[in-house]
Write a structure and sequence with these properties.
globular; two-stranded parallel sheet; Disease resistance R13L4/SHOC-2-like LRR domain-containing protein; alpha/beta; single chain; 14-stranded parallel sheet; repeat; 20% strand
Length: 397
């Protein structure tokens, strides 16, 4: 029996009921939530043997009945453990689960009793898998939360519109994909520093302007600007209200994601005047915005899957402080050109999976600070520019 412990880390969820201390402040689960032994013990030996013998027989109805029965028994036990924890450790400040290996399944749904943990500052549900794709509205009781991670390992999940109550939030990680019924108001989160997986289907674009302290913003598509003035971009209202934003991540992949509207991208980038880190992972972008729409502070750019038809190097090489460029599957042309004086501070360049690239021309004087060059899966590239050898010799000297 443990009564005076304040911080606990356990590798099996089932052990939690052995802890009787009501004063626990921090609880960390790691490795397997439910090890294989726990599932095996939930089934009679005869049933377990039958399930193991027929695991490759997808058309056997008895196999599925027995398997689902075992999972249901485990889920019910799991729910009891959740409720025990939420009703006996009410002084918890941090609740976290870190996966290394093993099963992520933790039950049918997250019990509403989690609303009892009103002192929580840190809550992570990352990688947990629930059969019931709906989080409880009692999450709104956790008004002192500073970090909330909802990146559960479930297909589309519904998040109730209660996050706006958590005005102390500094770091918010939304699910990778929410149900269409999810619509979150986030405009009250003025202390927010990190926001990940924001999109305009489940959130309100206008709320970003109120997040005046945000440092890191991750956008998932869809990202649409309503009533957008396509003829006069300067007349569109600002999107970003923080002058401290230093990192912007844009993800637009998957079958449901359409091509990024370059005009919306231009307007977004023109609002991010202080960013030093930009990452775009996209299905396709028809064209790269002109260089003056990019922040002059950019030191790191990562472009994956953009498939530009025109050579983007004449634009990127004008960025005065760019030090790292990762360029993968982002050009469908045959020729690429870097001019003299281009990329004045570039130190690291990665070119990967440019399957149609045949010729890369580099003028003398380009990339004077280059220290690392990596080229992967560019099968049609005939030879490296002679100027790159001069750069190498200059660096060695």
């Amino acid at each position: 029996m443990i009564r005076k412990v304040r911080r606990v880390s356990v590798h099996e969820f089932v052990f939690i009921q052995y802890i009787k201390s009501p004063n626990i402040r921090s609880l960390l689960f790691f490795n397997e939530f439910f090890p294989a032994e726990a599932f095996e013990k939930s089934l009679p030996l005869e049933v377990l043997n039958y399930v193991e013998e027929h695991e490759d027989d997808d058309c056997n109805p008895l196999y599925w009945i027995l398997l689902i029965s075992g999972i249901s028994a485990m889920a019910l036990k799991n729910r009891g453990i959740w409720r025990y924890m939420f009703n006996n450790f009410k002084l918890l400040r941090a609740l976290n689960y870190e996966r290394t290996t093993g099963d992520l399944f933790v039950g049918f749904k997250l019990p509403s009793d989690i609303g009892n943990l009103i002192h929580l500052r840190f809550l992570s549900l990352k990688d947990l898998e629930f059969l019931w794709p709906k989080l409880p509205s009692s999450l709104g009781n956790l008004r002192y939360l500073q970090t909330l991670d909802l990146r559960v390992d479930s297909d589309k999940i519904h998040v109730p519109n209660v996050i706006w109550r958590m005005e102390q939030l500094r770091h918010l990680y939304l699910p990778f994909e929410c149900k269409s019924s999810t619509k979150l108001k986030l405009g009250t989160l003025r202390k927010l520093l990190t926001l990940v997986n924001f999109n305009t289907k489940n959130c309100y674009l206008k709320d970003l302007i109120n997040m005046t302290n945000i440092r890191e913003l991750g956008i998932n598509f869809p990202f649409n600007i309503e009533n957008f003035n396509e003829k006069e971009l300067g007349k569109n209202p600002p999107i970003i209200g923080s002058k401290y934003l230093h990192s912007l991540f844009i993800v637009a992949t998957g079958e449901s994601c359409s091509e990024i509207d370059p005009r919306h991208l231009v307007h977004l980038l023109s609002n991010c005047t202080s960013i030093c880190k930009l990452s775009i992972v996209a299905n396709i972008i028809s064209e790269l915005p002109e260089y003056h729409y990019f922040s002059s502070h950019l030191a790191y750019i990562r472009l994956i899957g953009c498939e530009f038809e025109e050579d983007p190097m004449p634009t990127l090489e004008k960025l005065p402080n760019l030090r790292i460029l990762e360029f993968e599957r982002s050009f469908t042309g045959k020729e690429m050109f870097c001019s003299a004086q281009g990329f004045p501070k570039l130190e690291s360049l990665i070119l990967a999976e440019l399957f149609k690239l045949e010729e890369w021309k580099v003028d003398e004087g380009a990339m004077p600070s280059l220290q690392r060059l990596e080229i992967r899966h560019c099968p049609e590239l005939k030879m490296l520019p002679e100027e790159l050898r001069l750069i190498t010799k200059r660096t060695e000297a």
